[in-house]
Structures are given as structure tokens and as C-alpha cells.
Amino acid sequence: xxxxxxxxxxxxxxxxxxxxxxxxxxxxxxxxxxxxxxxxxxxxxxxxxxxxxxxxxxxxxxxxxxxxxxxxxxxxxxxxxxxxxxxxxxxxxxxxxxxxxxxxxxxxxxxxx
Amino acid sequence: xxxxxxxxxxxxxxxxxxxxxxxxxxxxxxxxxxxxxxxxxxxxxxxxxxxxxxxxxxxxxxxxxxxxxxxxxxxxxxxxxxxxxxxxxxxxxxxxxxxxxxxxxxxxxxxxxx
Lengths: 113, 114
Hints:
The structure holds two protein chains of two kinds. Chain A is mainly beta. Chain A contains no helices and eleven strands. The chains are: A mainly beta, B mainly beta.
């Protein structure tokens, strides 16, 4: 069964609104989680590293104020896309390391109209 | 610095035929190498990984890959393709073994023809 779960799987929103995506580790604690973005026919690009109890570490070129990450507990990290625009439409995936392996969530497809 | 090159963004094979997905990497230190599979609108699932030791690595669903240092390659193979193997496959490298430093290839979409 899944060890990392994302919610929602699909979300459609209007331009200018904010959207929150949750990433949960099931049955284990994850002090670190990773958020990726995947454009059509492209690979995963690491956006940020979510750290429980401290600020997220963002990759170069990723807007911190645009993509807010909160890792409030050892099993939950959230990614909030603020003031979403059509160019933010993408597939967002999270992952968490456990026992020497990276486990990925199911992904969340965001469509901004 | 590290990088991954997957040769062929699309590969088509007949059901029952050999599957060969190519991956070359570059790394300044001994690499950790991974193959992941992604089904439509889903996250990635680990097929297999190489860290140290035996260079021929066996994974799930009958896949295997061989680490060839001299060729800087980590090609994925399966003797006989099944329809359920149709998916996108990503090769990845981590030079340090740290998960935040995993670099993914662009992916190869495998089509299995009945």
C-alpha cells in the first residue's frame, strides 16, 4: 500500500485564487519531504525541501512567496500555490525518504483557469 | 555536478519482446542509481536501485539493470514485455546518496504493442 499520500489528486481553480496540496506520510515520520513539479513530457524538477519545524529550502528560481511550504508535523507537509495563474498549471508530486528509499505521493494535477 | 541522459523519449516494443531502456549518467563521485516507473496521473514507484556491490540489480516486475562504470551506463531491461509495462520510466542519479540531490532523467515512455 501507499506510504505517502497526496490530496487532492485533481484541483481546478480560478486565476488569482490559492490552492493547498497536502502530502502525508503514512505509518512513519518524515522530518524531510520533497516537492517536485512536473511539466508535460518533462522530468521532475525539485522545487523545495520541506523540513519539519523549520523553514523550507527552495531551489534556485522557485518563488518562496508563490509556493508556500509548511511542515507543521512529522507526517504532514503542505504546498500552497498562492495567487495561482494558468502558468502554474502542472503536476505536483511530493516524496519522503524512508528506510533508504524515496516514496512518492500519487501527485496532484493543478489546472488554473 | 551530476546528470542523467535517457536515450529515446519513446520506445515501442511488441508484447513478449525484449525491453531495453537506456540511461547514461555523469557523476563526480560514485553514484547511486535508480529506475522509477510512473503510470498516468500517478507518482513514481521505485523499480530498482544500485548503491554498491553487485552491478546487476534485479527489481520488481521482472526488470533488471546493470551498472557499467566504464560506460557510465545503467540500462534497464526486461526479457519479455507485458502490456502492463506500458508506462513512463525515469532514470535517476544521486551522487551523494542524499535524496535532495536526486537528478531525474527526462523519462522514456514505453509503448507495448499487442
